[in-house]
Amino acid sequence: MSSLEIGSVAIFGLIALIGIGMPIGLGMLLVSFLGVALMRNDAVATSMMTAVANDSLEEYLFAVVPLFVLMGLLVTVSGVGRDTFDVFQRMLHKVTAGLGIATVFANAVFASITGVSIASATVFSRVAVPEMKRHGYTRKFATGVVAGSSVLGMLIPPSLLLIVYAVLAEQSVGAMFLAGIGPGILLSVVFCVTILWLARRKRDFVFENTDVAEYNDIGWGAVAAKFVPILSLMLLVLGGLYGGFFNPTEAGAAGAVGALVIALWRRSLDRRTFWNLLVETGQITVSVLFLILAATFFSRMLALSGVPRELAEFFLQDSIGPYGFLIAYLLLIVVLGCLIDSISIMLIMLPIALPVADAAGFDLVWFGILTVVGVEMGLLTPPFGLSVYTIKSAMDDTDLRVGEIFRGALPFVGAMAAALVILILFPSISTWLTRI
């Protein structure tokens, strides 16, 4: 077989291995090794795998992964999510569907200090959903709002997906963080507009009965006390990063220390809990870095086979064109999001798609934002819908059905599609801050 044929078989072989249940990292390493061995020989394959293990993980930048993961876990156990929701509930409860909008804003703020969608889904399913149900909102809408707005955790910096993309695309993590701000704000606004439209045009979808429950009318002094730790952590991490005081790794370290101080100050962290958080941080970090190693080897194998070059020539011919490729790519990752998790989609698709996007002349920072938004839609779509299943497992409600959460999240999938179209039409929303 030719190198091109071997590369093509490797792609389909990887899909087949994932389909039968092999972990994606192991599958990538296996097909990559076999692919290089068939194109060259076993010695070259072994040498390349050794070089990849050294080259892909030796950078100082990779320290950012455990630091931001640890910060997110510390923030989650310290009760910052509940305080964030309380603040926005106090500010917005008199607005139509105000608790839904408060959930979106709380998720946006919480995302800026965690960077993981699943953390947002877990926290707000326990905080926001019971409060919305108490005030007459339908369970379908309440869980749908939490599922929908949880995706902000992977778009608003610091974001684990943006870090992974930056590594795979060889882009600056700082630039990707800057690029995520505008789209994150846009998506938050689109979600709020969706909630207001539903409240006025589809009231049965939003409200189950008249709101007669009393609100916890906390004073503005208490609001300030709840918001100060959140604001301080945001200023420390994002202010330090964007102000030029920290690089991304240093910002992660400062954020982890800040989150640790908050957790200790609130007495929500004992020795056993802290040890468990460190262990969980290590497990998440090792899994992410192993996947990056495997994806790097897969990318080099494909480059050796010539598959990306042939795909670029095919997609960029006049009959399809650059934007035809972009639309096909986004549709494919949305479909894949129905089946596998976000990081896996990026690890499979980016080694194939990035050379084509580069040949098309796309800004790779903008392309990364589109990729993250498209991938995140998969968190809300059946049958995989990781955010939906996270909410189901976090809710202590035996009557709650997964299908009910999926139906509640459907309007937010539509909102994300609308935001994706806007981001395609106006690339400057993603890139203007990176050019300042």
From TrEMBL:
Record's subcellular location: Cell inner membrane
Coarse class of the protein's main subcellular location: membrane
Keywords of this entry: Cell inner membrane, Cell membrane, Membrane, Transmembrane, Transmembrane helix, Transport
Transmembrane feature ranges: 6-39, 60-81, 101-129, 141-168, 174-198, 218-239, 245-265, 277-303, 323-352, 364-385, 405-426
Record's bilayer topology term: Multi-pass membrane protein
Domain TRAP C4-dicarboxylate transport system permease DctM subunit: 12-429
Cellular-component GO terms for this entry: plasma membrane
Function (record text): Part of the tripartite ATP-independent periplasmic (TRAP) transport system.
Family: Belongs to the TRAP transporter large permease family.
Name used for this protein in its record: TRAP transporter large permease protein
